Amino acid sequence: MAYKIETNTNQPANMPGLLRTHNLAAICVLLASLSLALVMSGMESILAPLWLLGMTAGFTLQRSRFCFASAFRDLFLFGSSRMLKGILVGLAVATIGFSINMYGMILDPKFGALPPQANILPFGISTVIAGVIFGFGMVISGGCVSGSLYRMAEGYISSWVSIGGVLIGLGLLSQNWNWWWSTFISNEPKIWLPSKLNLGYGGSVLITLTIIISVFLIVLWWESRAGLSMPSIKRKEEPDDTFNEKLGVLWNTIFVRGWSPILGGAILGGIGIFMYMTHMPWGVTGELSRWSNNIMTFMNIAPPDALGLSDLGGCAGRAGETGFFTHTFAVTVGVLPGSLIAALFSREFKLRFPQNRKRYIQALGGGVIMGYGAGLGIGCTVGAFFSSVPSLSLSGWLFAISLAFGAFVGVQAIKRIS
Questions:
Q1: Per-residue DSSP letters for 200-219?
Q2: Of 43, 110, 391, 408, whose CB has the highest number of CB atoms within 10 Å?
Q3: Is pTM beyond 0.85 here?
C-alpha cells in the first residue's frame, strides 16, 4: 500500500511544494511531535531537548540509510564498505567530543574514578558472546535495533516484527540475567583506557583514532580486493538563479535526495555528544528493556531483580526507570517521528509487506536473537559499540570484533536461506 502523492501541475518543479499531500502529512507529524515536546518539558525540562535529539537522530538515520547490520552485511556479502566508513567517521567525531566531556568530569583518570554515565562496560567472555549473538541476529533479521526503528516509520512491516522479537529476546535474557551475572559478568573488569598505563585522555584518544583510521584503511583494502567500484551518476543540474530556485535546491538537498553514510555518521556522532552532555551516551536498548519487563510483569511472569545491573551503566542499566515519559523514552521513541518526517518529505513512506512468509520468521527469529544479545551486552550496536568506543572503553572494541564475527556467520546463513 503506497502513500498517495498529489502533485500540482501549476507549481514550478523546483519549488518545495509544501501543499502537496506528503509534505502536509510530514508537517502535521512535526507539529504533533513539537507539541508533545512541550508537554514533556512541563514534566521535566530536559525531556524536550532529549526528544528533539531523538527526532534528529531518526531523521538522520532515514536520510542516510544508516544501519549497522547493513554495514557488516554489505562488507561480507558484496565487499562494500560504504556504510562501515560512515560508522567509523561517526566514531571519530564522538570520540573527540566524549573525551572533552569526560575531562570535565574526571580531570585526572589515574585515580581510578570512572566518568558518570559513560558506557564503560564489562570486558570478558560475556561481551564476546553478546557481540556474536547480536551480530548473527541482526543480519538474520535484516536490520540492527536502530535500523529497525527507523524502518518501522518508513512502513516496513518486517521491522515491526523484528522489534517484537527484540522485546521477546530481552525478556528471555532478563529471566536468566542473574546466572550470567554470577557466572561471568561479576568477575569481568571495566577497562577504561585513560586510567591504564598512564595514557590519560591524550594517549587514549590517539590510540582510539589510530585504530579507527587503521580499520578505515583495512575496509578500503577489502573493498578494492572485491573489485567493487561505485558508478559515477551524473545528476541533472538544477537551476539556482532565482530565490525560489535556490530554495528548491536547498530543499532537495536536505529533504529529497539521500545523504551519504559519512555525513550521516558525522551527524550521529555529534548527536551522541549532545546526548552525553545532557543525559547519557545514546542507546535504545534501555527503553525496550523497560517495555519488555513491563509486559512480562503484566503477564505475571515478572523477571527477578537483576543483580548488579544498576551499577554497570550502559543503556540497559536504565531499564528500571519509572513513569511513561522518561529519558530513555525520549531518545528512543523520538527516533520514530523523526524518521517518519524524513520518509514523508522524501516520498519514501510506503507500507511494505514481505512477499515471502519466510521473511516474517527471519525477522522474528533474528529479532529474538538480537534482543538476547543486546540484553547480555548491556546495549546494542548503539550503546555497546557506537557509544562505548567513544567512552574510551575497551569493551566497545571487543564487542565490535565479536559483532563482526557474528555478522559474518549470519551472512553465510542467509546465503543458505536464500
A1: HHHHHHHHHHHHHHHHHHHH
A2: 391
A3: yes
